[in-house]
Specification:
Order of helices and strands: EHEHEHEHEHEEEEEHEE
Oligomer: single chain
Largest sheet: 9 strands, mixed
Distance between the termini: 61 Å
Structural class: alpha/beta
Strand content: 25-35%
Helix content: 10-25%
Number of helices: 6
Shape: globular
Number of strands: 12
Length: about 230
């Protein structure tokens, strides 16, 4: 099976459909699959449910899909950097399933591991637990959270090979590896695509068995969400 694609558009061909659920890797603007997000926008696919730590910022990352109204629902843990997100949510145009960040990460990990649900203390006694099963273990209350899976996972890695073995770097390792395991189809874009055998097996974070397609990414911007500098003296 040849997994290497020439472009993000080619990688997404035959995979997309309206109303699908997409997991998008990254943390803030670090480690996001920029090329695949741009190709999603160009495809015109609509009514997406997007599972992601955040929704990018206005005009960049997943924020570009909010501009074109391609996202119907977000499942996220942090959305504070996007004014358009707030506007669409408050107007009722965008649905939001809000999660504590650790709970979101574990829901995705559980989905990739085939675990349908788990219990956590996080959120007990708050709105997060509304409508969910509460169970007591050893005298402590826990809330049940359901696992998350997706029709498509789009992830970004620092390095990958033609078999789809992936190596992530620093902050980009936060959500990408677990999302790669939880998609029916996983497509990875990498900063460096190397021949098979050039990645030490001990350095592989995501084995190629989880990845169906891979491509060499281009023109990464390395943006900063909030640039704070010291006042001039």
């Amino acid at each position: 099976m040849d997994k290497v694609c020439k472009s993000a558009a080619e990688a997404l061909e035959g995979v997309l459909f309206d109303g699908m659920t997409v997991m998008a890797g990254g943390f803030g603007l670090c480690g996001i699959p920029e090329n695949l997000i741009a190709a999603l926008k160009e495809s015109g696919v609509r009514n997406l449910t997007v599972i992601s730590n955040n929704a990018g910022i206005d005009g960049f990352g997943l924020g570009t899909l909010l501009e074109t109204r391609q996202i119907r629902k977000m499942v996220s843990s942090y959305v504070g950097e996007n004014k358009l997100f707030a506007q669409q949510y408050l107007s009722g145009e965008l649905e939001l399933e809000f999660n504590p960040q650790g709970t979101l990460a574990e829901r995705i990990r559980a989905g990739g591991a085939g675990i349908p649900a788990f219990f956590t203390k996080t959120g007990v006694g708050t709105q997060v637990a509304n409508g969910k099963e509460i169970r007591v273990f050893n005298g402590e209350a826990y809330v049940m959270e359901l696992a998350l899976q997706a029709d498509l996972s789009i992830v970004k890695a620092w390095r990958g090979d033609a078999e789809g073995n992936l190596v992530f770097r620093k902050t980009g390792r936060n959500f990408n590896p677990m999302m790669a395991t939880a998609g029916t189809v996983t497509i990875a874009e990498v900063e460096e695509l190397v021949p098979n055998g050039q990645i030490d097996p001990d350095h592989v974070h995501t084995p190629g068995i989880f990845v169906q397609k891979i491509l060499q990414g281009h023109e990464y911007e390395k943006r900063i969400e909030q640039r704070t500098v010291r006042a001039r003296t």
